[in-house]
Amino acid sequence: MFRNENVTSREFLKKFQELKKKFDSKEKMRLDSEYHQQLLEYIERLYLFCNREELMSEKEFDTMRDGQMSDLNRLQKLKNGESYKKDKHKNQKRDEDWG
User: Fold this and answer.
1) Helices (DSSP H) in the chain: which residue ranges?
2) φ and ψ at 20, to 5 degrees?
3) Does residue 43 contact residue 71 with C-beta atoms inside 8 Å?
């Protein structure tokens, strides 16, 4: 939703609150990876920011958009970095057998 320039702050808030309610209704699972911990922290931080008393203006939403996309990119890199390490070690183990 942050990448789509046509999404307004009201549309974002409505959709994000719906998703957060669905997320909260699910049974909690304990996930120990750094990626999952930071993802949960990100969701909670964004939810607190979006549930303030005053409504978010379009200008404030546009300003927030770049920072949020940066945070999401950082989370994506963290997620991909973990799977990259796993694939790297799988290949290393395979290469040892042929070595």
Assistant:
1) 9-25, 34-50, 58-98
2) -65, -40
3) no
The length of the chain in residues reads: 99
Q: Is 52 helix (H, G, I), strand (E, B) or coil?
A: coil
Q: Please state, as a whole number, how many other Cβ atoms lie within 10 Å of the Cβ of residue 23.
A: 11
pTM for the model stands at: 0.68
At 11-38, the pLDDT tens digits run 988 998 899 999 899 888 787 888 889 9
How far is it, in rounded angstroms, from Cα 88 to Cα 97? 15
Which residues of the chain have a pLDDT value below 50?
none
